[in-house]
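Q: Could you fold this chain for me?
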Amino acid sequence: VRSLERGERLLECFPGKGGSCFYRFSPEEGAQLLERAVAAAEEYGLGYDLIAGNDIAAFKKISEAMIAQGL
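A: Sure. Below is the predicted structure, expressed as structure tokens.
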């Protein structure tokens, strides 16, 4: 595994049955993602459901980008 440059994403995949892939983030980026997930979960009354909060935060980020592009 090589080190990451600033702003670069490293995608790691594990082959085989049920293999999975994930992105590696810096600690700062991970903290930002967690903060967004917690805030979205709280905003929509989901307590500390980080999976739902992350889904909502991601949807909001994508929809805001689409609106900014006029889509």
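A (continued): Helices lie at 27-43, 50-68.
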